[in-house]
Amino acid sequence: MTVSETAARKRRNALERERRRLVRLNVFEERARSSGHRLVAGTDEVGRGPLAGPVVAACVVVAGPLYLRGLNDSKQVRPELRIELAEQIKASCVAWAIGEASVAEINRLNIYWASVLAMERAIAAIASPIDYLLTDAVRIRSFPGPQEPVIKGDALCASVAAASILAKVHRDSLLVALDSVHPEYGFADHKGYATQRHIEALSAHGPCPEHRQGFWRVKDAMLLFPGFSE
């Protein structure tokens, strides 16, 4: 076998592995459709861990399988591919929507319930009906129809993975915009996560209004800057 033939064989094998992975990724949606649920939605949130910025959720409604090469949990997808996939997802689904919960709401509710609120807002913003809802291990009590919380749903369900990508791309853009308002923290680089640069900036400048006051690293910075107010 020549070098080119070997390379072609490797490409075919890689494509076949990806095809099989995508088939597995759509199992929950296909099972719901086989039970008579035509429009299946997936929802997920991103941004529970960062020290700053809103928590963002997305909801994606699909009427068939999402066979998009590279589709996966947003944390497992390269940033440049996430942006490309986000556009493919929007073009492939029946409907999609974004929901947010602000830093003030995170401070008031705690990050878990703010995340649920963001997902509820994303679901409520969907104009088309939802016959069945898949989530990443969270039950949305306000949703009246059948739903299935799936542990690690963002890695196992195509629609939930798609929602995680849309939410991640949207939130990243918000933090890039926030960087122009508060350039001293480096939000465009770390997107609000607790990197060394971010922690050092908190110690040097104190928190800004977009920092989450319930997170302990922000609390520590607030002690150093007692004049801080939301």
Short description:
With 230 residues, the chain is an alpha/beta fold. It has helices spanning 3-25, 27-34, 79-92, 103-109, 111-124, 153-156, 158-181, 187-190, 196-205, 216-224, and strands at 40-46, 55-62, 95-101, 132-135, 147-149. The protein has a five-stranded mixed sheet with strand order 3-2-1-4-5, with helices on both faces.
Could you walk me through the main structural features you see in this protein, from its secondary elements to its overall organization?
This protein is of the alpha/beta class and 230 residues long. The protein has one domain (3-180): Nucleotidyltransferase, domain 5 (2-Layer Sandwich). The chain is 51% helix and 13% strand. It has ten helices and five strands, in the order H-H-E-E-H-E-H-H-E-E-H-H-H-H-H. The chain has a five-stranded mixed β-sheet, sandwiched between helices. Strand 1 (40-46) and strand 2 form a beta hairpin. Helix 3 (79-92) crosses helix 7 (158-181) and helix 4 (103-109) crosses helix 5 (111-124). The longest helix is centred in the C-terminal third of the chain and has 24 residues, at 158-181. The N and C termini lie far apart (67 Å). 40% of the residues are buried. The model has no long low-confidence stretch (mean pLDDT 94).
Write the layout of secondary structure elements.
Blueprint: H1 3-25, H2 27-34, E1 40-46, E2 55-62, H3 79-92, E3 95-101, H4 103-109, H5 111-124, E4 132-135, E5 147-149, H6 153-156, H7 158-181, H8 187-190, H9 196-205, H10 216-224
Parallel strand pairs: 1-4, 4-5
Antiparallel strand pairs: 1-2, 2-3
